[in-house]
Amino acid sequence: MVPRETRHFDRSARLYSQNACFNGANTRIIHALLSVAIFRSFVNYYSCKDFALGVQIINYPHPTLRHVSKPLKRVDAELRSIIHKMFELMYEHQGIGLAANQVDLPYRMFVINPQGKPEAAESEQVFINPVLSQPKGRAEAEEGCLSIPNVYGNVVRAEKITVNAYSLEGEEVRAEVDGLLARVIQHETDHLDGRLFVDRLSPTGQMTVHDALAELEIEFQSKRERNELPDDQQIAQRLQELEQLRT
Ligand code: NI
After folding, report:
1. Spatial distance between the Cα atoms of 177 and 167, rounded to a whole number of angstroms
2. Domains of the chain (ranges plus CATH)?
């Protein structure tokens, strides 16, 4: 999920920190940080599986976004690398949540950080096999989605929700959440059921986003015609193979 306000806030914060790097006499610190970054990318290059490196966000109307994900039965090193990459992609695109099928994977799993920045690592959470229950109240707010770029609309959701899930460490987590956290968790769980926020818009909201969605459909079609995307059958085959591996 990507809220419009967070996008703008994040972008300005990032520009500011980039400028800050070129000011002042912190060159030595920057060099030290760069060496660490180069070392870490070197380690990542040789430890991450090639698969995780290739993980990318897919856009509407890619069929995987309509795939109903199956619960994970195992979490291995490759899946951990993929989750790491999902956080990176989420921050890179100023999002606060990213579901597995948004990176073309058929797994019941999503990552979130309602603060939307890697510096707030304490707010990072991985939800494996989430189950929502006990919805309470109704709240309406604007949402966006990393798989539907530049499209926003108001969505009515439960104000409070109970979520049961497993953490990356395999611990069972149960929490009653509200506010933005409840919204992000509902938005991402929808993804795992093949549902998008645009499906939940009012008839007026649907009309507002109609042209933008039609444009994304044309873009998808032309990519297919240029052979930049696999066909539906190839996509389904790949998802099935990935399911056999871990679900
Ligand atoms: Ni989304």
Report:
1. 16
2. 4-229 (3.90.45.10)
Instruction: Note the pLDDT of residue 46.
Output: 44
207 CA from centroid of ligand 1 (Å)? 19
pTM of the predicted structure, to 2 decimals:
0.82
Residues with a catalytic annotation lie at 188
Q: How far is ligand 1, taken at its centre, from the CA of residue 12, in Å?
A: 22
Quote the ligand 1 centre to 59 CA distance (angstroms): 10
pLDDT, tens digit (0-9, with 9 covering 90-100), for 13-32: 333 333 333 334 444 444 55
